């Protein structure tokens, strides 16, 4: 009897100890699981952002790498047979250009602080000045953005010279690019088509429709190529008061990422899935700005110059 009583007491004590341990360790394990879920969700977000950035970088670099060297030869050679622009003739034009900027934000992940690269749309003011000179193409940026715009500027000027039939060997072309933040390095080439339009407008003293903006690379043959960061650029254009957004036809099908939330034992797991959509429809539904597809610099001129 005493043995049974002792065993009963020991069992009761063991049960109480286990219940106590559950109350002690359960919150700790719950906290650990919550931290793990937060970590997984953050990694999913970072992976989605990296996929977007890599896709945009590859797309823009592929479209812009080829024509840069050829455009320099055209600018310096002066072999088109057309007369040099007369001394004293000047021109100027400017536009707001949608762009993609990147910033680093600190995100708390449990006891740790991590850095996440955030991509946002913004606008830059790009202006061009035509003045007598030595056939140079000059680019200045504020803030300092390195040389990411130089190749795009060279090609843009060559395209403008060919389209207007103007020999620019006695002319300097100065681009001024001003933004409120550092622009991603891969974003420079996507201003090529807009820079070509500015040159054509300045050389011909033609006004630009103030409701229009555009994005796209420019090839030496005048073809407007695909770019990245479309949703961010469309949103930036809309917020800046633009009502028409010219987009390369090569971007008519675009990849978007959607967030999916799943419940897992009381926690929310976040996943990102991609799908391909029609760019014009997607932009209209998300920003409301009117999108028009362009293929060549001739399409740009017809749509944007008065």
Describe the structure.
With 306 residues, the protein is an alpha/beta fold. It has a single domain (41-304), classed as Ribosomal Protein S5, domain 2 (2-Layer Sandwich), CATH 3.30.230. Helix content is 42%, strand content 31%. The chain has 7 helices and 11 strands. It has helices spanning 2-64, 68-77, 150-164, 192-204, 230-239, 279-286, 297-304; strands at 91-109, 112-132, 137-142, 171-178, 212-214, 217-218, 224-225, 244-248, 253-264, 267-278, 290-294. The strands form 4 sheets. The chain has a 4-stranded mixed beta sheet. The protein has a 3-stranded parallel beta sheet with strand order 5-8-11, with helices on both faces. Strands 6-7 form a two-stranded antiparallel sheet. Strand 3 (137-142), helix 3 (150-164) and strand 4 (171-178) form a beta-alpha-beta unit. Helix 2 packs across helix 3 and helix 3 (150-164) crosses helix 4. The radius of gyration is 29 Å and the shape is elongated. The model is unreliable at 66-82 (pLDDT under 50).
């Amino acid at each position: 009897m005493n043995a049974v009583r002792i065993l009963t007491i020991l069992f009761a004590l063991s049960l109480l100890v286990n219940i106590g341990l559950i109350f002690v360790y359960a919150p700790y394990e719950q906290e650990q699981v919550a931290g793990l879920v937060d970590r997984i969700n953050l990694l999913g977000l970072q992976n989605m952002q990296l996929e977007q950035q890599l896709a945009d970088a590859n797309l823009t670099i592929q479209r812009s790498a080829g024509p840069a060297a050829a455009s320099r030869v055209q600018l310096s050679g002066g072999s088109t047979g057309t007369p040099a622009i007369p001394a004293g003739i000047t021109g100027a034009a400017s536009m707001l250009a949608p762009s993609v900027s990147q910033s680093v934000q600190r995100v708390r992940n449990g006891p740790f602080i991590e850095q996440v690269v955030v991509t946002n749309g913004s606008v830059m003011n790009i202006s061009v000045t035509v003045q007598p000179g030595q056939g140079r193409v000059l680019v200045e940026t504020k803030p300092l953005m390195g040389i990411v715009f130089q190749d795009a500027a060279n090609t843009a000027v060559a395209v403008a010279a060919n389209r207007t039939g103007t020999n620019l060997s006695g002319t300097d072309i100065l681009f001024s690019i001003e933004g409120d933040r550092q622009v991603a390095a891969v974003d420079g080439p996507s201003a090529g088509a807009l820079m070509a339009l500015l040159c054509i407008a300045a050389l011909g003293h033609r006004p630009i429709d103030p409701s229009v903006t555009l994005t796209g690379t420019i090839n030496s043959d005048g073809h407007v190529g695909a770019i990245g960061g479309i949703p961010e650029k469309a949103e930036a254009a809309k917020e800046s008061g633009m009502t028409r957004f010219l987009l390369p036809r090569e971007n008519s099908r675009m990849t978007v990422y959607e967030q999916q939330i799943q419940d897992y034992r009381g926690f929310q797991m976040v996943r990102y899935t991609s799908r391909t959509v029609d760019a014009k429809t997607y932009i209209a539904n998300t920003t409301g700005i009117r999108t028009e597809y362009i293929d060549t610099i001739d399409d740009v001129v017809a749509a944007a110059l008065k």
